[in-house]
């Protein structure tokens, strides 16, 4: 059973996350011929203050 773990900065809407789950599921199912029912997608949202980009937090960068 394929499992994909997506780490991303917090702040996306529920609709955006649902779209991401749908599209990742479709891509995995198609690319490795896996039954869609077997695909798992886990989203871990990281607070902007805990997400570093080029040595600075996402929060300080205004992301």
Automatic annotation (TrEMBL):
<dbReference type="Pfam" id="PF01361">
    <property type="entry name" value="Tautomerase"/>
</dbReference>
<dbReference type="InterPro" id="IPR004370">
    <property type="entry name" value="4-OT-like_dom"/>
</dbReference>
<dbReference type="InterPro" id="IPR014347">
    <property type="entry name" value="Tautomerase/MIF_sf"/>
</dbReference>
<protein>
    <recommendedName>
        <fullName>Tautomerase</fullName>
        <ecNumber>5.3.2.-</ecNumber>
    </recommendedName>
</protein>
<comment type="similarity">
    <text>Belongs to the 4-oxalocrotonate tautomerase family.</text>
</comment>
<dbReference type="GO" id="GO:0016853">
    <property type="term" value="F:isomerase activity"/>
</dbReference>
<keyword id="KW-0413">Isomerase</keyword>
<dbReference type="InterPro" id="IPR018191">
    <property type="entry name" value="4-OT"/>
</dbReference>
<feature type="domain" description="4-oxalocrotonate tautomerase-like">
    <location>
        <begin position="2"/>
        <end position="56"/>
    </location>
</feature>
